Each structure stands twice: as C-alpha cells, then as structure tokens.
Amino acid sequence: MERSNGARLRQRIARGDLLLMPSCPDPFAARIAEETGFEAVALGGYAMGAGTTITEPLLTMSEVVELARRITQAVDVPLIVDGGAGFGDPMHSMRTVRELEHVGVAAVHIEDQVFPKRAHYHREYREHVIPADEMATKIAYAVKARRDPNFVVIARTDAMQTDGYAEGVRRANLFAAAGADMVMIFPKTLEEAANAPRDCKAPLIYVNSTGNRTGRPILTAQQLAEFGYAACMDAISVVIAQYMAVRDVMLRFRQSGLAGIDETAARESRIGIERLIGLETYYRIEEETVERARA
C-alpha cells in the first residue's frame, strides 16, 4: 500500500536533520523546488495572497484548498499548507483539515490569531492572538478531524510577538499537549531562537521571513540545525524573487521593446521549462497517437 504524503513527511522529520521548505505560490515554483532537490514544499499565506493578488486575510478556505490541489497534482514531495486561523471555530478548523487532506496535503498549520485575520499583520505585525485555551481546543478538534492518522497538524503561535517569549513557549507546550504534531514559532531575537527548541516540548518549525520589518532573525540552515529545529520554512523569498525579476524584465521591455534576456540563456531556459512541465512526455504521446494518424 502506498504511503500517504503525511506518512512520508513524518518519516522525513523522523530522520532528525533539518528539513528546508520553500513557500511556493504556484505549481510552477513548487515543481522548480522539487527539481532542485527540496524534499517538501510549503504554501504559505503571504505567497498565496501575493500570487492571487487577493491578500491572505481575504482568501477563502475553498480558494486555499484549490491552490493546494493544484500543487499536490504537480509535485511528488509533501506539501505543507498555511490554514490561517482554521477559517473559524473548531468545527471550521475540522473541515479545513478534511478538505486539505482530501486533496493530498501532508500537513496544515493553524495559528492562534483572530478570525477573520487582519491585513495589518503584514505591515505592522499587529497580531491579535486568541486565548490560549481556545486555541488548544481548536487544535484538539483539528487532530480529531483527520482521517489519516499520519496527516500532520501544526500549531502556530504568534504570542512571542505580542506577549513575550515565555508566553510563546507556554502556548507551544499547551498546543503540543492538545495534540499538535509540530509547532511553528516566531522568536524575536537570536537568543530566543536559540533557546526555543530546548524550552518547547515539540518539534519546532522556524520561519525565515526575508525583508521582515521587525528585525526578526534570518537564520542559516547550520544555525537552525545546531539550535535543534526540525524544519525551516522560507516564507517569502520566492515571491520577492518573482517580483524583482519580472518587474525588471517588464521595465526593460517597456523602455525598449526588448526584454534584455540573453538569447542563449533564453533558449536553454525554454528547454528547461518544457522539460519541467512535462511537454516532452506530451510530445511523445502525440507522436504515438494523433500525429501518427496524420502521417
């Protein structure tokens, strides 16, 4: 019997070395991540919001599930999805788990922020966390909702930003006791980041948020491994790279009518793109079927 994506993710985490996961806004980026050797990919809220130009707080559960479905169909590596605040109360979180599990997602992270989520989170990091016991109940019911016991439920807490390090640790341990398989935390300083894996009683995920405006540390894989983190998600770099590169090409094209891309590199990239999206397989199928009929 084929292992589920959740089981594959658990097996990878159990290996013990740091798991790196880029947040990919679409199937194309996710397949590039897979091709370059990543063992898991993420679909983060910022990436989803930017990729759809809707912004994360306005995304509906059905939109998130559809984005996730498109990525799970495109890659063979496990996908971790940002479930926001679970789209409501415990019963809403239960449906979120079931819908994501149904489309092949390996894990979901649910956060202790208010629902609906505030847009200010992106600019001013003005989090509004819900009571810890309320979040623990939401996690417990999210765990109950999974049909595959290997589906990974991740609790995310933003309390270190709002209520300090000690409260973040307390919540991480409370959510682990409620059944969370892993916890995603947001330490504010290098010292907090170093201490958290020792103080928290669950495998921890660190989030590198490139360009964040609070000075929260961006840490290397070596640092995170030495501290004892189980995984690291890069939340925003792919989207930033897309914005910078595409905008640069657009400006050059607008100014001169030429994109300014080296022709040799462009040809090689087109071949790589066609290979990446499977066109070579489709070419072969056509040669064996419809093209042969025309000959």
Explain this structure.
With 295 residues, this protein is of the alpha/beta class. The protein has 15 helices and eight strands. The protein has helices at residues 5-14, 27-35, 45-52, 61-74, 90-102, 120-124, 132-145, 159-162, 165-177, 190-199, 221-227, 237-256, 263-276, 279-288, 290-294, and strands at 19-22, 41-43, 79-82, 107-111, 152-156, 182-185, 204-208, 231-234. It has an eight-stranded parallel sheet with strand order 1-8-7-6-5-4-3-2, sandwiched between helices. α10 (190-199) links the parallel β6 (182-185) and β7. α7 runs parallel beside α9. The radius of gyration is 21 Å and the shape is globular. 40% of the residues are buried.
Could you write a compact summary of the structure shown?
β7 (204-208), α11 and β8 form a beta-alpha-beta unit. The termini are far apart. By secondary structure, the chain is an alpha/beta fold.
Based on the model shown, name its key terms.
295 residues, alpha/beta, 15 helices
Count, helices: 15
Please state the structural category: alpha/beta
The major β-sheet equals:
8 strands, parallel
Shape: globular
Give the termini distance in whole angstroms.
43 Å
Please compute the radius of gyration using only Cα atoms.
Answer: 21 Å
| Low-confidence residue ranges | none
- Total strand segments: 8
Strand content: 5-15%
- Mean of pLDDT: 95
Helix content bin? 40-55%
Taking strands numbered 1, 2, ... along the chain, how are they ordered across the largest sheet?
1-8-7-6-5-4-3-2
Would you list the SSEs in sequence order as H and E? HEHEHHEHEHHEHHEHEHEHHHH
